Amino acid sequence: MNRQIVRLTYVSLALVGVLVVMTTYWQTWAAAGLADRQDNAIRRVAEFSVDRGLIFSWQPRRRLARNVERTVDGRTLFFRRYPYGRLAAHVVGYSTAGRSRTGLERSLNDYLTASNANLSTIVDKALDELRGKPVEGNDVVLNLDLDAQRVALEELGTQCGAVVALDPRTGKVRVMVSSPGFDPNLVEESFQRISRITADCRPASPLLNRASAGLYVPGSTFKVITASAALEAKKFTPDSSFVDPGYCTVYGKRVNNFDTSSPFGTIDLENALVHSVNSVFCNVGLKLGAKLILDTAKRFGFYERPPLESPADERLPSGLYENRRLYYPRLDSDVDAGRMAFGQERMLVTPLQMAMVAGAIGVGGRLLEPQVVDRIVTPGRRVIVQQRPVLIRRAVSRETADAVARMMRLAVERGTGTAAQISGYSVGGKTGTGETGVPGSNTTWFIAFAGRDEETPPELAIAVVLQNQSGTGGTTAAPIARAVMEALLRTTANP
Amino acid sequence: MTARNRELAGLLLAAVIAGVALASVTIARDAGVSARALTYGALFLTLYLVAHVVIRRTVPYADGALLPLTAVLTAFGLTLNYRLDPDDGGRQALWVLIGVGVLAATLVALRHDYRVLESYRYLFGVVAVVLLLLPSAPGLGEEVNGARLWVHVGPLQFQPGELAKIFLILFLAGYLREKREVIAQGRLKDFGPLFAIWGAAMLVIVQTNDLGSALLNFGIFLAMLYVATGRALFVAAGLALFVGGAALLYNALQHVQERVTIWLHPWTDERVYCALNGRLEFRQDCASYQLVKSLYSIANGGFGGTGLGEGTFTSTDGATLIPYLRTDFIYSAVAQELGLVGAAALLLVFMLFAVRGMRVALRAQDGFSKLLAAGLTFGFALQTFIIVGGVLRVVPLTGITLPFVSYGGTSIVANFLMLAGLLLVSHRASEPR
Predict the structure, then answer these.
(1) Which CATH number does the domain housing residue A273 bear?
(2) Which end of chain A, N or C, is more open, meaning fewer C-beta atoms within 10 Å of its C-beta?
């Protein structure tokens, strides 16, 4: 029987040997793949064992995100609290055990959990682990002005819309608000209450960051780009004169002005923008062709995701859309250039993009990267990331930008945007009313820039969008833009 | 150096391992070496020294490696059970104490000649079958996790399957020793008992849904049949019958079907029907939750492990991640806290035990002893393979215990009985006559 027993020994050893091999497989080969799986609760516990970095607003000592410690099974875990609730909810996002992450909590997760590759972070983390202390994440300081955020949210009220304000000289985003907002503290505790939020639009989509991921018909705000294209191509000047019959004919169809009752008669390009005359821009568009206008739009950042520190899928590119996808026309005749020239056709834009357009016009054509993060600091107060202004490109020439800026200033001085006047400041703006075809459901806009006077580069650019409006951009959006700009200019005047 | 002195040295080493392991658990959990850990270490050593003394007095020529290896395995088990639940750790220690008592009693009772057992072989066979079917008896059995394994008698509960295994091996050793020549001739009428056993194994599956125990017992039977007859064809035929029978039963038994589905496709990309709550869920959140969470636990260990007491076994809200962690899934706790190094070390101890056990079988002089030792050892190795293999997704997962390591009284006692058998056989083989 001994021969059989020896063979049985080999079988026994082989059986246990298989176990060694498979253990090795799971612990080495397969380990990384398993760690990345959504339902891996162990990984989640590890992430919540990190004393996550704090998030501060531009005003010092205002913590937009902080931690509360809780001991679970002999282990200290750190859970997020958002003391300012909905004030910066869309930008900061949330980090929860149950529903993963959004906003900067997602895109900056590596920094916040000290998993970034900076040498000092790696050393600090290793020391923490050796001492048995919880690993401390890096803190993030934002450019957001909380007081202005509050003003913007209050002004929006129950209306659906968004406000983006930035410093066009540096790209620092000072306000980024989307309405309706939500309290990120509720995401974990009672998500039901967030899904029950209502506003003046359906669905209310409180979690959507309309400021960078909401697509809207730009309406007349797009005329800023058409005008830039017209001047840049040197086919028109501000003094080019047109006859406004109150409508324009595209492919045999009439396109009416917003108010057809009082045609302007003979009018130059400058005044056409000041009074937002559709027929003029329609003819300009037909003359320029779709390709030229789109090329200019691309110079302003259309057809790319605006660079911002938030997650890529929370930022959408602006441009022509068809079936929810960016549409790239091949021929000039694919696009109705006349209607596109005043912001109809299939053109859809984000408020962030339009703030960038207004800002670039204000500062002489230079398009800067919008940045919501100012710096990232280690627990030991060492700055590991300091954001600096980044020029994306010169969108249009200085002459073109200044000429369009002058038109926008006149629009606020005596045109459609008078509601945005601020005493002591030079404001240039453009209203917009995107018609959706249903009465009372227009998308209204106001984009603007504001500076001390006409000579100094503006310190602010803003875009306000409102959904489901019966009024015009000048009566609905411009007052909100003014209120937010005033709040921001107040703080920059006495920092 | 005699076997007994080697055994003593091995036990001291095992006690050091147990002491260090318990100390690191208490350091991790209470931030300091508590006196309790040291007390436990000392008690552990004392207990095994008592076993050592009993062996010295009853079976002085027995193999000297088996008891230290057992001590190391129970040290793993005690440490992890204590780390996962201090109260259960205490109860497990009590069971090890009882196990050592059973070991001592068995050695004392059978020290002159254990071969008297051979004459009770048919009684053992009947006892084994009765024990196997006990959990399905109305009023006694309880269904846990889809399988009926437990028996309740008043306040006591035990898993008769663990004990049935020992009795089955005793029966087979006696029966095959007697009939091996006639069976080896391969005449159909001698295969009556083979078919009877096969039928019983299938009956056990049907009655108790206990695929693991059926596989284990049938595997032991085939291995002993092979050792007795040397006919690999019998093994092949037996395997074919088992697989064929299982395939037939597969369609009839939902429990078995589900186990196989979980084994082949633990993760789904789409939501499938979940029998637990009647809704559509990802399978990893429903039927294969346990297996998948256990794989995450193993993967989290990596090469060096998280360290004793530092593993993650609860989610962020404090809920237990892996059900049955201390019994069926103790290996995934080992793998996470001790990593590949520790898990491989544990498996190496199992291998060493298997090699020593087979060596006992080789050195035994009579057929009954050889079959008994080989059967006990192979049962030990196969049981390890079935449960750890289930946890590692090598075979479908079934609920049986990891010998000496899992939490559970019946299992500990049964395995000390197995150890007693091996010690008795090896003593007789090496005894100068």
Answers:
(1) 3.40.710.10
(2) C
